[in-house]
Specification:
By secondary structure, the protein is of the alpha+beta class. The chain has helices at residues 35-45, 80-88, 128-142, 144-168, 176-186, 211-214, 225-238, and strands at 14-16, 22-30, 49-54, 64-72, 93-99, 106-108, 115-118, 121-123, 190-197, 202-210, 245-248, 257-260. Helix 3 crosses helix 4 (144-168) and helix 4 (144-168) runs parallel beside helix 7. The structure holds zinc ion.
C-alpha cells in the first residue's frame, strides 16, 4: 500500500438539504478533451459553486459520458433553468438537464442506475448502519455462534470464488491476494497490508480497518467472514488447508486486526 494516509472518497449519491439554491444537474458530454471544461466555465461565469461531482467513465466507448453535478447557486443571480440551457448549448455538450427533487429536502441522483465498478462488474452500496444492524440482528436472532459460523462458511465460498476469478484474470499466484486486498480497499471494504512467503506458506495480514470487525464492536466478536474469505484465498493459492488465527481484532478494541497462520 502507498505510504500516504488514505482519504475518504465521496460518491455523492444524495444530499439532504432545505437550501433551495442547491440543484443537481446531469450533463451529457462528448468523449473529447475539454468537454467538461466547457461546463465548468459556465458555472464559474455565474459564480456557481460545485458541491460534488460523480463523474462518468468514457471506457464504454460509446462516445459520450454523463456526469451528476450538485451545484450551489446561492451566490448566483442567474436562474438555474437558464444556466442549464447555456450548458446545453456548449459545442462539446450533448445536453444538460436539472434533476427534480422527489421530496423537498432530497437532492438525489436517480439518473444513473445501476452502479458499475468496472467493465461489466456491477456494484451495490449498502450503508454502514445497515451492515451493523445485520450483524447485531444475526447475533440476536440466531445466536452469536450460529451467526459466526454462517459468516465463516459464506466467507469461505466467497474467498474461493474470488481467488479463482483473479487467477482467471491472468495474475500470478502471489499477485492474487494483492489484487484482492487492494480492490477491497478501493471498494471501501477494508484497508491493510500483507506479508506472504509462498515457499514456506507463512502469511500475515494486517487490517487497519475492515467492514466486519468495525461493525462488530458492539458484539465484541472477532471476524468470521473476513477470516473465511482469506483462508479460502490462500487455500486456492497454496493448494492446502489454511487456518488463520486473528491475534488482535478491532472488534475487541485493538488497533488493528492481524491474521496469521503461523
Ligand atoms: Zn477483527
Amino acid at each position: 500500500m502507498q505510504d500516504r494516509p488514505p482519504e475518504p472518497v465521496f460518491l455523492f449519491r444524495r444530499l439532504l438539504t432545505t437550501n433551495k439554491d442547491i440543484h443537481a444537474i446531469i450533463v451529457k458530454l462528448k468523449d473529447v478533451p475539454g468537454a467538461l471544461m466547457q461546463v465548468l466555465n459556465v458555472l464559474q461565469k455565474y459564480q456557481i459553486n460545485i458541491l460534488g461531482v460523480t463523474a462518468f467513465s468514457f471506457m464504454k466507448q460509446d462516445g459520450y459520458g454523463n456526469a451528476f453535478i450538485v451545484t450551489d447557486c446561492s451566490n448566483s443571480h442567474k436562474k438555474i433553468k437558464d444556466v442549464v440551457e447555456e450548458i446545453s448549448k456548449q459545442p462539446l455538450v450533448i445536453n444538460s438537464i436539472k434533476l427534480e427533487r422527489p421530496v423537498p429536502v432530497l437532492v438525489i441522483d436517480t439518473y444513473h442506475y445501476p452502479i458499475m465498478i468496472s467493465g461489466e462488474l456491477k456494484g451495490y452500496i449498502f450503508t454502514q448502519p445497515l451492515i451493523e444492524r445485520i450483524m447485531q440482528g444475526g447475533a440476536e436472532t440466531f445466536g452469536i455462534d450460529a451467526m459466526q459460523s454462517f459468516l465463516w462458511y459464506i466467507g469461505k465460498a466467497v474467498g474461493k470464488d474470488m481467488a479463482k476469478t483473479w487467477l482467471n484474470y491472468g495474475l500470478k499466484k502471489e499477485e492474487v491476494p494483492i489484487g484482492i486486498l487492494w480492490t477491497g480497499q478501493s471498494l471501501g471494504q477494508w484497508k491493510g497490508s500483507l506479508n506472504q512467503d509462498l515457499t514456506s506458506g507463512k502469511v500475515e495480514i494486517i487490517f487497519h480497518d475492515n467492514f466486519e470487525c468495525s461493525n462488530k464492536k458492539g458484539l465484541k466478536q472477532k471476524s468470521s467472514f473476513v477470516r473465511g474469505v482469506w483462508e479460502a484465498i490462500y487455500e486456492v493459492i497454496l493448494e492446502r488447508k489454511v487456518t488463520f488465527e486473528e491475534v488482535s481484532c478491532i472488534a475487541l478494541g485493538d488497533e488493528q486486526c492481524v491474521f496469521r497462520n503461523f
